[in-house]
């Protein structure tokens, strides 16, 4: 069967795949449109498998709220350029919409679920976008928060989603207050809400380090303990949200800011794209020479 330009255009509009990929799919399936779509889906999975070993440390965070539920997720790709691609942005939004509605218990469970936007599993949907864009794409992680009617979510995306912060504030419905706290979290990167959340082992380890530092400075042992407790306060200011100086008013701490509003912080999550992923360092000149030798 002769494959026409009109057929290729139709398949491309339906799948978003490249023109040559569409022509090949139609040729392989003798012009059957449905079979060609399946062919592209299968080849998309194959292309995704080939890219599985590549490093995806760029990407975006995204926040979606629905009623009393909210999700913060991170989707990774290989280059920052792809984050501006409409298909990538749609994928991220679709994944967030699905997760906040279905609330999967784990990443593994989410990948196996059928997503309404494409009638595919999430894993298949991601692979189809991989086939179109040509980069490895992964749903790396997500966190779901749930509130009551007397609480409020605060959300903030920094640098186009490079950093995402989602916080649950209790005792108020003031969204501006919650957003200010989320903005602070994005900027200050606390690890815990309060001192009570820090594991005893972590505190004792820091206390021992501070004690040895003071002794090495030649401080008298009788005043070391008092010095350590004072320096431990600085440690808590670095890692505990409520102990930190509020970014919008350095004269007060976050604890006072929310307390003055009759509120308190219940929990938060903060993602920064690519944190913890070891990026591959490449020598551009060496890469060009390598390609020329081929």
CATH homologous superfamily placement of the domain at 53-146 = Elongation factor Ts, dimerisation domain
Evaluate the radius of gyration: 25 Å
Going by helix content, strand content and strand pairing, the class is: alpha+beta
Our estimate of the beta-strand percent is: 15-25%
**Which ranges are low-confidence, i.e. pLDDT below 50, for 5 or more consecutive residues?**
none
Overall shape: elongated
How is the main sheet built?
A: 3 strands, antiparallel
**Separation of the first and last Cα atoms:** 37 Å
Number of strands: 10
What does the average pLDDT come to? 90
Second rung of CATH, namely the architecture of the domain at 53-146: 2-Layer Sandwich
The CATH class name of the domain at 53-146 reads: Alpha Beta
**How would you describe the oligomerization state of the chains in this entry?**
single chain
In spatial order, strands of the major sheet run 1-2-5
Helix content: 40-55%
The number of distinct helices, counting runs of at least 4 residues, comes to 11
Series of secondary-structure elements, N-terminal to C-terminal: HHHEEHHEEHEEEHHHEEHEH
The CATH topology label of the domain at 53-146 is: Tetrahydropterin Synthase, Chain A
């Amino acid at each position: 069967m002769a494959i026409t330009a009109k057929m290729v255009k139709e398949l491309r509009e339906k799948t978003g795949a490249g023109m040559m990929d569409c022509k090949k799919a139609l040729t392989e399936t003798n012009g059957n449109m449905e079979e060609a779509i399946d062919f592209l889906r299968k080849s998309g999975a194959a292309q995704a498998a080939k890219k599985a070993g590549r490093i995806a440390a760029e990407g975006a965070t995204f926040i979606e709220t629905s009623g009393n539920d909210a999700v913060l997720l991170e989707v990774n790709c290989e280059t920052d350029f792809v984050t501006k691609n409409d298909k990538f942005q749609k994928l991220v939004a679709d994944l967030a919409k699905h997760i906040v509605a279905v609330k999967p218990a784990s990443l593994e469970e989410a990948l196996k679920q059928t997503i309404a936007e494409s009638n595919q599993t999430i894993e298949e949907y991601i692979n189809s976008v991989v086939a179109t864009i040509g980069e490895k794409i992964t749903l790396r992680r997500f966190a779901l928060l749930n509130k009551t009617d007397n609480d409020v979510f605060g959300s903030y995306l920094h640098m186009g989603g490079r950093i995402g912060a989602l916080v649950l504030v209790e005792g108020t419905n003031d969204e501006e207050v919650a957003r200010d706290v989320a903005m602070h979290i994005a900027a200050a990167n606390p690890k815990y809400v309060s001192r009570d959340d820090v594991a005893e082992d972590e505190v004792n380890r820091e206390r021992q380090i501070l004690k040895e530092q003071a002794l090495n400075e030649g401080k008298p042992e009788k005043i070391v303990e008092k010095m350590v407790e004072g320096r431990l306060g600085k440690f808590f200011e670095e890692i505990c949200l409520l102990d930190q100086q509020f970014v919008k008013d350095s004269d007060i701490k976050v604890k006072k800011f929310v307390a003055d509003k009759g509120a308190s912080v219940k929990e938060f999550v903060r993602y920064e794209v690519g944190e913890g992923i070891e990026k591959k360092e490449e020598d551009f000149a060496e890469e060009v020479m390598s390609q020329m030798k081929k």
